[in-house]
Write a structure and sequence with these properties.
By secondary structure, this protein is α/β, with parallel strands linked by helices. It has helices at residues 32-42, 58-68, 83-93, 115-124, 170-181, 191-198, 219-247; strands at residues 3-9, 26-27, 30-31, 48-53, 73-78, 102-107, 130-136, 143-144, 150-152, 160-169, 204-208. 37% of the residues lie in helices and 23% in strands. It starts with a strand and ends with a helix.
């Protein structure tokens, strides 16, 4: 099965309070989206990459790909005003692909996705309708009423924090999006929500993710990302020193 990674990069960065969208901010010498693209470029399970972004940033994405030698990047297309319309734009772009093609949506602002997690998602697609990445919730979750009073406390054992990638077969997710587009009252916050609502017969299997696969949303997240990148760099340096010592 062909696997296509759709990197959603049309966000404005409004919640971070930056004039520049967060996916283009530089952390430890590289833009956030460079780390994201690098993970998918290095993953053997991914056949090609498509980035969905604002039309003004298309040249920037292409420049990043050339600079880094990201050969899997097939195209950069214009996204919409929200996640739903950006995902749908990607599905329409690939409308002529086989319905069995695996479409893997990923947030551009989750730069520390591990290639092994991507590979696990693709492998699980061999025996599941859809696959998504998530982590067990370690916090108690409150459901509030309209007056911000606690109305309900769901059992934590069944609660997971949603992450990306989220993987689907092109035919199934495209049909679900077509149905959702015709429903003016539906609001989706992720791609799994669309499939769950409009193709409930499709079961979505969850692959356990990692706390490192954080989503850059607020300024403090950039500091966390920088710390994680420094830790990784230090670990790689120590590994190289160990290999060199063994050779000597």
């Amino acid at each position: 099965m062909k696997t296509i990674a759709i990197i959603l990069a049309a966000g404005s960065g409004r919640r971070l309070g930056s004039d520049l969208p967060k996916q283009f901010l530089e952390v430890e010498g590289r833009q956030v989206i460079e780390y994201t693209l690098d993970a998918f470029e290095k993953c053997a399970a991914v056949d090609e990459i498509c980035v969905v972004t604002h039309q003004h940033h298309i040249p920037e994405i292409k420049s990043i790909a050339i600079r880094n030698g990201f050969h899997k990047l097939r195209d950069v297309i214009t996204g919409g005003a929200d996640r739903f319309s950006s995902s749908r734009a990607a599905l329409e772009f690939y409308a002529n692909e086989s319905p069995e093609t695996i479409i893997m949506f990923h947030d551009s602002v989750r730069p520390l996705i591990a290639p092994r997690t991507i590979e696990e998602c693709v492998k699980e697609m061999e025996c599941h309708d859809a696959v998504a990445v998530g982590t067990p919730s370690t916090d108690t979750i409150w459901v509030l009423d309209s007056q911000t009073n606690i109305r309900e406390i769901p059992p934590r054992g069944n609660l997971y924090n949603a992450q990306t990638p989220q993987c689907f077969r092109l035919g199934q997710i495209s049909e679900a999006y077509s149905r959702a587009a015709a429903d003016s009252g539906f609001v989706a916050t992720d791609d799994c929500g669309v499939l769950l609502r409009y193709a409930p017969e499709c079961k979505i299997h969850v692959v356990k993710g990692s706390a490192d696969n954080l989503k850059i949303t607020y300024k403090e997240d950039l500091s966390i990302l920088a710390s994680l990148l420094k830790s990784r760099s230090l670990a790689y340096d120590k590994q190289d020193e160990s290999i060199l010592s063994n050779k000597i």
